# Entry
Amino acid sequence: MEVFLECCMTLFFSAAMLLLIVRLAKDEEKNMMFARVFSLASNVGFWIGIVRIAVLNRSGFLMFFYITGAMLSYTAMVFAMPHKKEQIAGQQA
# Structure
């Protein structure tokens, strides 16, 4: 039951990261400081979960959800940085 609830938790946090990425990509997010802090805090939390699972030799299935969340939160951090966003837009033009 504990593993199931932890999977649900990481899925919901990953979904929040995905929604933040979509909002940042569409320029709908107005509070960029919140986006930066939230994505950084989420990234740290996901990495702590990865280390905890590795130390306790827990399920590799659960590790997949934490790694996915860490990648999504890193992507949100990149989109929240203004100079990176301008570089990406310049490369597409």
Helices lie at 2-25, 32-56, 60-80, 82-92. The two ends are 49 Å apart (CA to CA). The chain has a mean pLDDT of 86. Residues 32-56 form the longest helix (25 residues).
